[in-house]
Amino acid sequence: MEISVVIPVFNSEDCVDLLYDKLSKVLKKITKTWEIIFVNDSSSDNSWKKISEIKDKRVVKINLMNNFGQHNAIMCGLNYAKGKIVLTMDDDLQHPPEEIPKLIKKIKEGYLVVYGQYKEKKHGLFRDFCSKNVNKILSKITGTGYNVTSFKAIRQIVVKKLIQFKNYNIMLDVFINDLVSSKNVGHCEVKHKKRKIGKSNYTLKKLISFALNMIFNYTIWPLRFSTIIGFIVSSISLFLGLFEFIIYFTYGIDVPGWTMLFLVVTFVLGNILFILGIFGEYLGKIYLIVNKKPQFVIKEVKNGN
């Protein structure tokens, strides 16, 4: 098998048929041996019905039992991918199948992973703003100087290592950064089209959740931040104590104790609760790992016809 294309699908019933038609035409021109792997992430519309109706032996159709998220759905598809080169792309046609040859050409230069880089994103203003900031966070976490995208090509040798990660909270690009040196990661400019069919499945809640997952699962920044907060709180408390001591013994002025005490206690308790919240997030993540929460659960698999 030369090429596999993994596509996570969520509430995109209006895109499935057109995506398959365009993708199959492009792949036929590149190689004789290819496959498309659709992973339905428990869509609430007729996405699975549309996927199931595709009559092509080169199409693998996977239906998940619950909504596990985009990266988990991709990880599921990677477990089934047989191609020497595996591509991942979105289901909304904003990643044009016609751009795939660029990724293939670039990865054949010797790279292990190639990311499609957008000269201009065709999201709305809100999505663009959120996407840029999430990418900045991810770039800081991975230590890379480039934006990672879900439109990428990966060699099978890397895919085999990726599927060995058993974390429930999956961040494929962080995993790739752990496995592959930056000198083996390539980039090529690709088009990003405006979504013409349906609406984006990314809400503010999902984007915030995505960003928090990156921060709490793959960095210790919050723990360091809590240490800094603790130091600042202690310093302020010490300063206020010294200030009251100096005022009293220098000028004989008795600073109202109850007001000062209330402010200090409230300030300290507020920060303690904040820091405990950070520790709680990390403990929750450890709990999920220890209890081996599954990355995905497959309800049904249909191969070919």
Description:
Helix content is 50%, strand content 15%. It is elongated, with a radius of gyration of 25 Å. The mean pLDDT is 85. The protein has 305 residues and is of the alpha/beta class. The chain starts with a strand and ends with a strand. The longest helix has 34 residues, at 257-290. Strands 7-5-6-4-1-2-3-8 form an eight-stranded mixed sheet, with helices on both faces. It has helices at residues 16-30, 47-52, 70-80, 100-107, 125-142, 156-162, 172-179, 204-218, 221-251, 257-290; strands spanning 3-9, 34-40, 59-64, 85-88, 113-118, 152-155, 185-190, 298-303. The chain folds into two domains: 3-202 and 295-303, Spore Coat Polysaccharide Biosynthesis Protein SpsA, Chain A; 221-290.
Characteristic terms for this protein:
10 helices, Spore Coat Polysaccharide Biosynthesis Protein SpsA, Chain A, 305 residues, elongated, alpha/beta, 2 domains
At a glance:
By secondary structure, the protein is α/β, with parallel strands linked by helices. 50% of the residues lie in helices and 15% in strands.
Number of domains: 2
CATH C-level category of the largest domain: Alpha Beta
Structural class: alpha/beta
Our Rg estimate from Cα atoms comes to 25 Å
Succession of helices and strands: EHEHEHEHEHEHHEHHHE
Supply the number of helical segments: 10
Q: At the fourth CATH level, what is the homologous superfamily of the largest domain?
A: Spore Coat Polysaccharide Biosynthesis Protein SpsA, Chain A
The end-to-end span amounts to: 18 Å
CATH topology annotation of the largest domain? Spore Coat Polysaccharide Biosynthesis Protein SpsA, Chain A
- Report the helical percentage: 40-55%
As laid out across the biggest beta sheet, the strand order is 7-5-6-4-1-2-3-8
Main sheet properties:
8 strands, mixed
What is the name of the CATH architecture of the largest domain? Alpha-Beta Complex
The average pLDDT value, as a whole number, equals 85
Gross morphology: elongated
Fraction of residues in β-strands: 15-25%
Low-confidence stretches: none
Count the strands?
8
